[in-house]
């Protein structure tokens, strides 16, 4: 870590600032209710949702080949057919997908204490939102949680040549804010992208949000700092700056 004060903080979005996983679970529950009440599915409803969740976790999206709506509708179509058999049912798949998506977006909110933290931090440092993912999907989340106004810049990986953990996207963010990598801190919940990316780019520090006390693999990237909540960040940044003051 360099001997300059923190000038900028890069935040991940999903499961760092908003509870994407929780919102997705709520969406799945609504689909289960739909399948059970309207279509009289029984245990198959949960099986279908479990299959879709697996497909989402393994998703490889290439925007030049297919749009995200078609891809994710296909996840539902395949899961329904794998579970129920028979002919593909695209109409039902679309109904499930759009219910899951709309419910998920409704529950993607910035908590009031997170808003307050961002507002106070921005008085002292530049803030940038750096999120991986498909352009349409991530922009819809950003709009749903109304977070853009809390940041000096927003960068979506799906709009760039490379995503986290590639150093290039971090250098792009630095250029946007007029800072050097050694001035910046990356905050996120994913070791393989947020933390590894910050390390690759030579940022001043990386902060891993480990809400559930996960024990990482020995081969995982090692963050400079670990916190259980993003709300611990202001105190941590003060600690980092104090160390700089004592070293100069």
Automatic annotation (TrEMBL):
Task: Name a biological process GO annotation.
Answer: CMP-N-acetylneuraminate biosynthetic process
- Name the SUPFAM superfamilies for this protein: HAD-like
- Keyword terms of this UniProt record: Carbohydrate metabolism, Hydrolase, Magnesium
Which pathway does the record list? Answer: Amino-sugar metabolism; N-acetylneuraminate biosynthesis
CDD domains on file: HAD_Neu5Ac-Pase_like
Domain of life of the source:
Eukaryota
Q: What is stated as this protein's family in its record?
A: Belongs to the HAD-like hydrolase superfamily. NANP family.
Identify this protein by name. Answer: N-acylneuraminate-9-phosphatase
């Amino acid at each position: 870590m360099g001997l300059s004060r923190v000038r900028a903080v890069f935040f991940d979005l999903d499961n760092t600032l908003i509870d994407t996983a929780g919102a997705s679970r709520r969406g799945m529950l609504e689909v289960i209710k739909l399948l059970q009440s309207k279509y009289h599915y029984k245990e198959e409803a949960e099986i279908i949702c479990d299959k879709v969740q697996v497909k989402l976790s393994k998703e490889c999206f290439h925007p030049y080949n297919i749009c995200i709506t078609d891809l994710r509708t296909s996840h539902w179509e395949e899961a329904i057919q794998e579970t129920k058999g028979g002919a593909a049912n695209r109409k039902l798949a679309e109904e499930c997908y759009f219910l899951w998506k709309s419910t998920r977006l409704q529950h993607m909110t910035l908590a009031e204490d997170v808003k307050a933290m961002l507002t106070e931090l921005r008085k002292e440092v530049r803030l940038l939102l750096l999120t991986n993912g498909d352009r349409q999907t991530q922009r819809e989340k950003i709009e749903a949680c109304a977070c853009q106004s809390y940041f000096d810049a927003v960068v979506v990986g799906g709009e760039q040549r490379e995503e986290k953990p590639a150093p290039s996207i971090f250098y792009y963010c630095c250029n946007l804010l007029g800072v050097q990598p050694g001035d910046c801190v990356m905050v996120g919940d994913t070791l393989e992208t947020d933390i590894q990316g910050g390390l690759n780019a030579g940022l001043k520090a990386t902060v891993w949000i480990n809400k559930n006390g996960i024990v990482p693999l020995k081969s995982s990237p090692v963050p400079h700092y670990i916190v259980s909540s993003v709300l611990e960040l202001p105190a941590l940044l003060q600690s980092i700056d104090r160390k700089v003051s004592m070293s100069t």
